[in-house]
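Format notes (please read before filing issues)

Several people have asked whether sequences and structure tokens are stored in separate files. They are not. Every record keeps both together, in the order shown below: the sequence lines, then the token lines. Line labels are part of the format and must not be stripped during preprocessing.
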Amino acid sequence: VALLVSGGHTQLMAAHAMGQYELLGESIDDAAGEAFDKVAKMMKLPYPGGPNIAKLALQGDAKAFEFPRPILHQGLDFSFSGKNSSFRTVEKVR
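Then the structure lines:
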């Protein structure tokens, strides 16, 4: 199983052999990297957001907020847009 995560795509694939891949699921809206970039922008962090958020996460409390899991849709397709909405809600609380 291979997981492709970037700013534009998130795909879960079965790698049967070199050059033989089967798409199992993919993001239907925001990719995982795109969600990190959007949240980083809201936090006024530099682009790309993922590495900057990862550094800050090491200093944080993993149990401070409960974020929803990505929604599974048909098969193994998934959505990360809820992460952005959840972050906006947390920002309003803080």
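For reference, the curators noted about this record: The chain has a mean pLDDT of 82. The beta strands are 2-5, 10-17, 20-26, 71-72, 78-79.
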